[in-house]
C-alpha cells in the first residue's frame, strides 16, 4: 500500500522535477505571456520572487549567438501550432553558460483552439541538480499544466513505485482508487499493439541507450483509445545507477485524428470516400504486376455520367453531390470485394476488375448501367441517371497504367459519340480519331482567338409550289470555320467539340453579335417583318438568359424591344430537359424583343401541356422527317400531324432541309408555311447574302 507521502503526488512530483532539473513552461498563444515552473527559474539561476518572465525577458537570457534562431522557432511553432524541439545556450547573471534542450507542443482548450503552448526544459550539459525552490509559482504552474492537459509522473526504478498527478488519471481514464501505483499498472493501460515497443523504449532509456521521447496509445476502461505523447528523463545516483524516471504525458489524439484524415484525403475522395486518382493509379500498377505474374486479365472501366453538368446547373451542387454519392454506392453494390472503384474527379469513375474475358466485362458493364437506372430523388426532385463506359483490357489494350487509362478514355469517347448510355471497348482504330479530335480542340481555341470563325446566312422563303413565287421571309445565321488547311469546316464537326471544351457560349455570342450587326445594317434590304434566326445552345435552361450588355447591343441604340430583328432557335430536346425552367428563360427573351422558335421539332418528345405554355412563334420540323418524305409514309403522317397541331396552337411551321421539288410540293399541299434548303438557296457568306438582298430589292422596285 502506498504510504502517506505517496498520497501527496503534487509535492512528490515537484520534488522529483527539481531533482531532475526538468522545468515546465507555458505560453499564452494570444498574448505571449509566459508562466514558468519553479524549476525553470532554477535552471536560469533566477529568483521567481524578483522577476516576472515574459517572452522577451526569456529570450534575453539566451546566448546572443542562439537568440534569434531560437525565438523564431518558438514563435513559428506557437503560430503554426506545431510541435517544437530546439537546443540553445543560456547566459546566467554570474557569467555561466548552460546548454539546454527545450520541447513543446500546442495544448488546445475547450473555448480557444489556440490558447496554450506548453513544454519541458532541461539541461543537457551533464551538470548537477538545480537548487530547490518553493512558492506560489509552483502551484500556479501545476494548475496551468493540469488545465492544458499535461500530466506529470514519477517512477521509482528501485521499488517500481509509480506516482501520477491528477491529470495523469484523467489522461488514462483511471480513478486513483483503481490504480495500483506501480509500473505494471501503467502497462495494463497501454494498447496491446503498442505495449512491447513502449516497454522496450523505457528499458533503453533506463540503460542510457536513448532519450525517452515517444508516443503510444492507451485504452480507457470504457474502450476509448487515446494517443499519448510521453517525455521523460532519468535521474541517476552518484555511481551513475538509474534511480528515478520523471516525465510528462499529454493527449495528442486530436492531432493524430486530423493527421489521419489528411492522410486519408491524400488518397481518397472526400465526397464518396472512394480512392482518388493517385491511389487508383498506384493500385492499378500493383494489380497489373500481379496479373502479369499470374497470367491473368484485367478490365479497366472508365465511367462518366452523361450530361452531369446540367444536373448542377439546374438543381444545384447539393443535388449534384447526392447524385455522385448514389452513383458510388450503386456501383459498389454490384462490384465484388476484390474489385477497385475510384472517383478520379467530377463525374468520372474508374473500376479495375479481375475478369477472365471480354464476355465477363460485358456482363459487368451491363450490371453497372442497370444499377444506375433508377432515379435519384431529393426533396421531390428526381433525376434519372445515365452513364457511358469505356473499357480497356490488360494485356490486350495496354501493359501499363497510362496506356490502359488512355485507351479506356478513348473507348469512353466512342460510347458518348455513339449516343451515350452505353459501353464501348477500345479498338486501335479509335486512337487516330481521338488524336484528330484533340487537334481540333486546340485549333478551335486558336480560331476563336484569331477571328477565323464567320457567319453564313441561309435564306428562308414562304412555301409555294412555284419557286419563282417564293417570297424571302428571313435568314438563318450559321457559323462556319474557315480553317487555313482544312478549308470551310461545317458546324457539325466543331460545335460538339466547342460544347465539350466550354467554348460554345463564346461562339453563340459571336454569332448573335454578328447577326445583330447585319440585321441593323440590312434593315432597309430585308423585307418587312423578316428576321435573322440564330441557334442558341443550351447547357441548362438558365444558360438561355443573355448578358445585359449583349441584350443592349442587340437592341441597338434605340434600346427598343419592338425593333429587334432576331429570332432565337432552341432545340426541342434541350427545352424538354427542364420545361418549367425553360418557360421562364424563354419568356424573358420574348419580353426583350426576340422571337422564339423550337428547332429540330419532332425529336424531343415535348408534351402538349408544356408546348402550349412555351412563348414560341414557330416550330421547325426536323430535317430527318423531310429527308424520307419520298419513301416513308410515316414521316408524311408525322409532318401532317405537326402542322395540324401547330395550327391549333396558332404557331407557324418551318421545314428545313428542303432539297427536292417533290418535297416542296408535299409541304405546299399540306399547308407548311415556310421552308429553307438547297432547293431554294444554300448558305451564303455575308457578302453574297448582301448582294442577293440588293438584287431582290432592285427587282421589287422595278416591278
Q: Topology of this structure?
A:
Layout: H1 9-20, E1 22-28, E2 34-36, H2 38-43, H3 55-60, H4 64-80, E3 84-91, E4 97-107, E5 116-123, H5 136-147, E6 150-156, E7 162-164, H6 166-172, H7 183-189, H8 192-206, E8 212-219, E9 225-236, E10 242-251, H9 253-267, H10 277-293, E11 298-305, H11 308-315, H12 317-334, E12 340-345, E13 348-354, H13 358-371, E14 375-378, E15 381-384, E16 387-394, H14 401-417, E17 423-425, H15 430-450, E18 453-462, E19 472-483, E20 487-489, H16 491-501, H17 504-521, E21 531-535, H18 548-555, E22 566-571, H19 572-575, H20 579-591, E23 595-601, H21 608-611, E24 618-621, H22 623-627, H23 633-648, E25 652-656, H24 661-670, E26 674-676, H25 686-702
Please, what is the average pLDDT? 84
Major beta sheet, strand line-up = 18-19-21-22-23-24-25-26
Poorly predicted regions: 1-10, 127-148
Q: What is the molecular shape?
A: elongated
Spatial gap, N to C terminus: 127 Å
Q: What radius of gyration results from the CA coordinates?
A: 40 Å
Overall helicity = 40-55%
Number of strands: 26
Structural class: alpha+beta
Account of the 3D structure:
42% of the residues lie in helices and 24% in strands. With 703 residues, it is an alpha+beta fold. It has an 8-stranded mixed β-barrel, surrounded by 4 helices. It has a 5-stranded antiparallel sheet with strand order 2-1-5-4-3, sandwiched between helices. Helix 11 (308-315) packs antiparallel against helix 12 (317-334) and helix 15 (430-450) crosses helix 16 (491-501). The longest helix has 21 residues, at 430-450. It is elongated. It starts with 8 loop residues before the first helix and ends with a helix. The relative contact order is 0.05. Mean pLDDT is 84; it is low at 1-10 and 127-148.
Amino acid at each position: 500500500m502506498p504510504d502517506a507521502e505517496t498520497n501527496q503526488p503534487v509535492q512528490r512530483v515537484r520534488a522529483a522535477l527539481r531533482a531532475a532539473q526538468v522545468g515546465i513552461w507555458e505560453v499564452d498563444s494570444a498574448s505571449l505571456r509566459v508562466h514558468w515552473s519553479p524549476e525553470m527559474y532554477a535552471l536560469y539561476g533566477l529568483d521567481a520572487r524578483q522577476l516576472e518572465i515574459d517572452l522577451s525577458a526569456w529570450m534575453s537570457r539566451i546566448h546572443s549567438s542562439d537568440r534569434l534562431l531560437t525565438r523564431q522557432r518558438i514563435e513559428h511553432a506557437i503560430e503554426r501550432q506545431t510541435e517544437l524541439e530546439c537546443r540553445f545556450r543560456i547566459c546566467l547573471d554570474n557569467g555561466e553558460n548552460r546548454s539546454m534542450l527545450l520541447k513543446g507542443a500546442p495544448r488546445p482548450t475547450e473555448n480557444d483552439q489556440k490558447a496554450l503552448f506548453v513544454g519541458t526544459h532541461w539541461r543537457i550539459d551533464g551538470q548537477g541538480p538545480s537548487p530547490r525552490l518553493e512558492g506560489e509559482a509552483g502551484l500556479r504552474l501545476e494548475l496551468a499544466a493540469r488545465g492544458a492537459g499535461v500530466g506529470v509522473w514519477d517512477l521509482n526504478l528501485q521499488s517500481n513505485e509509480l506516482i501520477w498527478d491528477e491529470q495523469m488519471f484523467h489522461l488514462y481514464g483511471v480513478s486513483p482508487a483503481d490504480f495500483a501505483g506501480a509500473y505494471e499498472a501503467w502497462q495494463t493501460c497501454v494498447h496491446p499493439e503498442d505495449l512491447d515497443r513502449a516497454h522496450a523504449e523505457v528499458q533503453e532509456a533506463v540503460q542510457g541507450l536513448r532519450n525517452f521521447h515517444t508516443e503510444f496509445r492507451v485504452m480507457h476502461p470504457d474502450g476509448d483509445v487515446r494517443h499519448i505523447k510521453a517525455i521523460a528523463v532519468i535521474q541517476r545516483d552518484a555511481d551513475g545507477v538509474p534511480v528515478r524516471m520523471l516525465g510528462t504525458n499529454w493527449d495528442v489524439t486530436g492531432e493524430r485524428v486530423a493527421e489521419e484524415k489528411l492522410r486519408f484525403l491524400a488518397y481518397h475522395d472526400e465526397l464518396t470516400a472512394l480512392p482518388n486518382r493517385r491511389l487508383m493509379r498506384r493500385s492499378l500498377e500493383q494489380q497489373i504486376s500481379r496479373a502479369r505474374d499470374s497470367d491473368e486479365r484485367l478490365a479497366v472501366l472508365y465511367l462518366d455520367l452523361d450530361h452531369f453538368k446540367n444536373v448542377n446547373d439546374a438543381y444545384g451542387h447539393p443535388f449534384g453531390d447526392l447524385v455522385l454519392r448514389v452513383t458510388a454506392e450503386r456501383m459498389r453494390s454490384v462490384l465484388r470485394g476484390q474489385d477497385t472503384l475510384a472517383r478520379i474527379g467530377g463525374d468520372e469513375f474508374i473500376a479495375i476488375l479481375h475478369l477472365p474475358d471480354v464476355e465477363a466485362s460485358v456482363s459487368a458493364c451491363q450490371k453497372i448501367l442497370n444499377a444506375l437506372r433508377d432515379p435519384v430523388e431529393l426533396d421531390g426532385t428526381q433525376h434519372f441517371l445515365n452513364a457511358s463506359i469505356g473499357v480497356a483490357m490488360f494485356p490486350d489494350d495496354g501493359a501499363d497504367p497510362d496506356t490502359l487509362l488512355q485507351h479506356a478514355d478513348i473507348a469512353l469517347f466512342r460510347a458518348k459519340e455513339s449516343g451515350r448510355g452505353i459501353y464501348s471497348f477500345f479498338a486501335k482504330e479509335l486512337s487516330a480519331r481521338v488524336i484528330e479530335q484533340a487537334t481540333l480542340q486546340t485549333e478551335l481555341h486558336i480560331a476563336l482567338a484569331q477571328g477565323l470563325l464567320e457567319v453564313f446566312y441561309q435564306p428562308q422563303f414562304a412555301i409555294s409550289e412555284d419557286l419563282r413565287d417564293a417570297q424571302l421571309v428571313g435568314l438563318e445565321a450559321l457559323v462556319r470555320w474557315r480553317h487555313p488547311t482544312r478549308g470551310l469546316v461545317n458546324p457539325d464537326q466543331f460545335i460538339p467539340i466547342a460544347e465539350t471544351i466550354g467554348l460554345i457560349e463564346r461562339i453563340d455570342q459571336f454569332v448573335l453579335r454578328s447577326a445583330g450587326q447585319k440585321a441593323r445594317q440590312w434593315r432597309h434590304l430585308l423585307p418587312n417583318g423578316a428576321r435573322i434566326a440564330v441557334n442558341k445552345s443550351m447547357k441548362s435552361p438558365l444558360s438561355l438568359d443573355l448578358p445585359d450588355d449583349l441584350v443592349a447591343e442587340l437592341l441597338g441604340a434605340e434600346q427598343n424591344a419592338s425593333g429587334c430583328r432576331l429570332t432565337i432557335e432552341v432545340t426541342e430536346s434541350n427545352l424538354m430537359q427542364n420545361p418549367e425552367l425553360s418557360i421562364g428563360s424563354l419568356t424573358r427573351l420574348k419580353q426583350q424583343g426576340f422571337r422564339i422558335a423550337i428547332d429540330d421539332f419532332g425529336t424531343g418528345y415535348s408534351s402538349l401541356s408544356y408546348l402550349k405554355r412555351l412563348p414560341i412563334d414557330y416550330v421547325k420540323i426536323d430535317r430527318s422527317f423531310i429527308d424520307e418524305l419520298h419513301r416513308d409514309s410515316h414521316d408524311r403522317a408525322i409532318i401532317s400531324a405537326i402542322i395540324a397541331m401547330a395550327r391549333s396552337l396558332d404557331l407557324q411551321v418551318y421545314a428545313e432541309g428542303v432539297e427536292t421539288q417533290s418535297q416542296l410540293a408535299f409541304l405546299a399541299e399540306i399547308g407548311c408555311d415556310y421552308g429553307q434548303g438547297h432547293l431554294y438557296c444554300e448558305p451564303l457568306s455575308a457578302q453574297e447574302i448582301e448582294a442577293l438582298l440588293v438584287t431582290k430589292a432592285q427587282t421589287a422596285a422595278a416591278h
